[in-house]
Amino acid sequence: MKKSLWLFSFFVLILAILPCPAQSAPAYPTKPIEMIIGFGPGGAADVTARLVAGYVSKKWGQPINVINMPGASGIIGTRHTLTAKADGYTLMMDNHAVSAMLAASQIDLPFKWENRTVIARVTVDPVFYLVKQDSPWKDLKEVAENIRKNPKVFRWGVAGVTAVGAFAMPQFLEVNNLPFDSLNRVVFKSGAEVVTALAGGHIDLAAQQYSEATGLILAKKVRGLAVVNPERLPGLPDVPPAKEVGYPNLNVYGWQGVSGPPKLPPEVVDKWAKSLEEACKDPAFLEQAAKIYKVLAYLGPKEFWEFMQEEYKRYLPLAIKMGIRK
Amino acid sequence: MATFDLLVNGFSQALTPTNLLFALIGSILGTLVGVLPGIGPTSGIAILLPLTSFLPPTPAIIMLAAIYYGAMYGGSTTAILVNIPGELSSVVTTLDGYQMARQGRAGPALAIAAISSFVAGTMGIIGLTFFAPPLAEVALQIGPPEYFGLVILALSVVVSLSGKSLLKGFASAAFGAFVALIGIDLTSGQKRFTLGNTELVGGVDFIAVIIGLFAIAEVLRNIEEATPSIYSAPLKSLMPKLKELWECTGAMLRATGVGFFLGILPGCTPGAISFIAYDLEKRVSKNKDQFGKGAIQGVAAPEGANNATTSGGFVPLLALGIPPTPALAVLLSGFMIYGLQPGPLLFEKQPQFVWAVIASMYIGNVMLLILNLPLVGLWAKMVAVPYYIMGPMILLFSFIGAFSVRNNFFDVWTALFFGFLGYLMDKVKVPTTPMVLSLILIPMLESALRQSLSMAAGSPVLLFTRPLTLIFLIAGVLMTIFSLYARYRKPKIKEHLLGDKEEAK
Fold it and tell me: Is A320 in CB contact (< 8 Å) with chain B?
């Protein structure tokens, strides 16, 4: 009896193993995928990652686990991803702050920033130039004039060195031919703290992302003078695009996309790019993205990479001139 | 009065079976998240955020909010039983909570933590219900110079937490400040004290440090003694005596005040707030010498304060859409997924929803109290587990906790390093609490100071011209002088009391 049980088990085992070589290798993904974020939960990259992970995992029937590895302005999580095995099971939610802006502001990164396989950009996060609700300034031209007349009097708030504001505000000064030190730079830990300080009148100006600005604009605590986006944004029809108010050259904004370690297999890149492109055309996905104040702006692998390099070319001179490249 | 009607209406919403169920699920999950070190409410809410894709907004937000305030109930459990603070805000709870557990009073300690959490949490919600919009306006007036004053005030606590030797206390605080500075400087992007190591660029994780200093160091001390159980006294009653409860009412009320008002301010971390509440309690107490030796008020104060802080945090969130803590930032994205933008408009456009959520917080707190009190008996039995099982378990949970905050193995080494450091510090009688306090406060102090300076183009003028800042600064200086005076005025008594404390350890 015991012997026959052994035989039976052996038989079952053989059966279980045998068919495998006969089949072709199963299609990616065959196991859960890790999506790394270089920041804590709740930020713009995190929210997008969870949105994308939800959509793609439902489509593929494989879990996509969002893993937060915050630290060192995103360097820790990015390094983890870029040095991981290039099998498509460790990817990251890439964004402006861990690519071009990081490379522009840090001299000795522990990885080569260009050593990454970029897959696709999914969303952009338009930047708003903001003042306090009862500020006397009506538009950006007036802001520039006032800064020119009273240098080193007004304060702008920014959330760190690799935040959108850290590049958007100096760019504003540059296009107006104003010196970089004509504003007092006040650094906060997060975008939420920047807009709060603006609403309380502790600073005079800020350039923050859609998701951070909208709440206080709707609450009538801060006012948007312009938004860096081709058109007006849903929900905020009173804020004109920068190009409509005489600033066509303001072009700093945030974005989120999917990237991975260098030399990712082409089939992984293709599969992701295709699914993300489909997502960006899906009305349901669009609706979800709009709710978390993201604008869908798909760029395929090639265009995405060109976009990133073009960003770096713009940000590097800006970072050097501002003296934030360390 | 309109508020009252709206609240009643909110209750009728919150009491529907579905909403009750999700408040309960949130409370249970919150307690769990609180008990497990490393997994805080922030990641707890983030993990459950996808559920929002199929739940209607009201039950979903009710559940996510319950995780947030529920975590504050759970955080005290491991702090009291095994000296591992489950959450940042429970660090102070270990000081007296763990001592109580060792004296066989784990039951009353856990119970008072739950009761104090309930009282302060509920009173905080009353504040939220009736004064949210005006309080949010006040919060906006608090800028970097005010935070600077506030931190200076909080730092004056170092003197009273220093133990026997002021020099050793300050050395501990200074080392904490040094550790806090490791990493990228936010203002300039400059790397500080990183020795070319990428991991250090990310800074030393605070949770890993406290897990090391508190839990791992304690295990090292205990295995040295080779005792079968670390809990010297047998388990006495589970519930606090009525007299003890009565003695804690003052502590709970003060903790509510401190927690709620500081909780409204974005930028005041719950860790700092519970320290301030603890110190306040120690100052007003008649039995100052009991603090650190198992004073029940030393548990009631920080636990009450951190729950009042969560209630306070909803003020700027609901009234202005400003999340004062990372966990509330995740909750805010939950709101946004439903297209609900918190702010004055939310109260106008979606009163049903807002008031249902606020009403559910009253209900959730009652549920948490009912959930946690019977658990006290269960948890308290843990003290009967022999130490050869308990010790390794504590280490295991310490490592998991240290790892899971940033999903980084480096943090496990950090915890281990600080475990040995904490052990050595104890040997040479250098207190660790000032170090923890300055780890929490120095980053706040630095950014508030640099912000205040850059607001005035480098001049310190704002620190001396803003009335609230001045008040805080003067209070801080006075409290320091007072503590120093008390220390040197009656050296005999102080020595005697502190000597006792040393022996009790």
Answer: no
